[in-house]
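All the exercises in this workshop are built on plain-text protein records. A record pairs a protein's sequence with a compact description of its fold. Read left to right, the backbone structure tokens trace the chain's path through space. Once this layout is familiar, the rest of the handout is easier to follow. Here is such a record, shown just as it appears in the course material:
>
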Amino acid sequence: MDDISDSDISKIYGSLEQIPDSPDYTAPVALKIADTPVYRFVEHMPEFPGDINQYLAANIRYPKEARDRGIEGRIVIEFVVDTDGRVTKTKILQHIDPFCDAEALRVIRQMPRWKPGTTKEGLPVKTYFTLPITFRVQ
């Protein structure tokens, strides 16, 4: 690596902290990973592993309470795809009904790991992703 300073490292990973004296630990310093930012747009956005529409169709169950009342509409959910592909920090941006909202959140939270978003350098980063889910009575 070419001339990387401690300040360059701390910009990427957070601050360096001195490890307390411990008979079990001999290294003089450790890297403390600071909370990394969450990006809205990155060079390569996160990708679902497969067909997301098939996943939603196979896993969403129209809530009986909403179906009986003829509730239809589109829910918009925002979540973060973490650097390891996990879906975290789910949030509903557009509601239609508490039962449908809860069902959409349940399915999003159970998603398999995604391919994370990456920077132009190819580094995985936390990335926001917005997904609309439509409920229609058939």
